[in-house]
Design brief:
Number of helices: 11
Strand content: 15-25%
Oligomer: single chain
Shape: globular
Mean pLDDT: 97
Bound molecules: pantoate
Low-confidence stretches: none
Number of strands: 9
Order of helices and strands: EHEHEHHEHHHEHEHHHEEE
Length: about 290
């Protein structure tokens, strides 16, 4: 596996691959890789000739400085996992390479991300999606991939990235991949390592409640289901729901009832101690 550190190395490498007629995938990550990331790599390796992963903890998408500082960094272990997964090259720049200090004073481009970026994470993490759009658009422009892969745990992020590529005129297929879970149901996340033993034992309750609520939703209204989830998760030790929204999967608008859209998804954010966890579940169509 090639290790690329500069933008020029990345563009040169990607251009050579495209010139050779290879199909190219990009899998952007912030490192601290787990089996969820590896499922994205496996899918990308299966679908494409060349897979370029990126490992970069992007400062502009962190609205909370403490969260940025606490974000786990495990570069060597990440490289080994990527190599084993069959990834062709990893792009792992430092922050000055992506955001040169010489450009620091320049006003940042403001992305038109529409309504999908205003709700949920958009309300609770101001500026977060502008930062995501900034880094993902840069990576897509540098690589020019045929496809880019993202995990559905960050359900809203995928909608925002689709919107960004449309408004910025970036021609790429955005592929969302299913959430990977630990054996006890907890959605895999790089933040899970920050849970202490008690919190780690409690956190799987979030998915347990979400799963139970799909059953509950068959015989209850949307408002009743929302209340059921909020109350049951808030009753878990050390857990506090920040928001739980049941939305049309396409527009991310709050669903009015169970029939209002072909796919309806419940998106939750929970503080488990100081650790912010997110998860989601599909209510309609009902999983068989
Ligand atoms: O999902 C993530 O890890 C990040 O938001 C991404 C897409 C790599 C951009 O920094």
């Amino acid at each position: 596996m090639k290790i690329l550190r500069t933008r020029k190395e990345l563009t040169d490498f990607a251009a050579r691959c495209r010139a050779a007629g290879s199909s190219v995938a990009l899998v952007p990550t912030m490192g601290a890789l787990h089996a969820g990331h590896l499922s994205l790599m496996n899918r990308a390796v299966a679908d494409n000739d060349v897979v370029i992963a990126s490992v970069f903890v992007n400062p502009t998408q962190f609205n909370d400085k403490a969260d940025l500082e606490a974000y786990p960094r495990t570069e060597q272990a990440d490289f080994e996992l990527l190599d084993k997964a069959g990834v062709t090259a990893v792009f792992a720049p430092d922050a000055d390479e992506m955001y040169p200090p010489s450009e620091a004073g320049k006003p940042a481009h403001v992305f038109d991300l529409g309504e999908v970026a205003e709700v949920m994470e958009g309300m609770y993490r101001p500026g977060h999606f502008q930062g995501v759009a900034q880094i993902v658009s840069m990576l897509l422009r540098l690589v020019g991939p045929d496809r880019a892969y993202f995990g559905e745990k960050d359900f809203q992020q995928i909608a925002v990235i689709r919107r960004m590529t449309a408004t910025e005129g970036i021609n790429v297929e955005i592929i969302g991949c299913p959430i990977c879970r630990e054996a006890d149901g907890l959605a895999m996340s790089s933040r899970n390592v920050r849970l202490d033993a008690t919190q780690r034992a409690t956190a799987p309750g979030i998915y347990r409640v979400l799963s139970e609520s799909t059953e509950y939703s068959r015989t209850h209204t949307l408002d009743q289901t929302r209340a059921y989830v909020e109350n049951a998760v808030n009753a878990l030790p050390e857990c506090r729901v920040e928001y739980f929204s049941i939305v049309d999967a396409e527009t991310l608008r709050e669903a009015a009832d169970w029939e209002c859209a072909p796919r309806i998804v419940g998106c939750i954010t929970v503080y488990c101690g100081q650790v912010r966890l997110i998860d989601n579940i599909t209510y309609r169509p009902i999983a068989k």
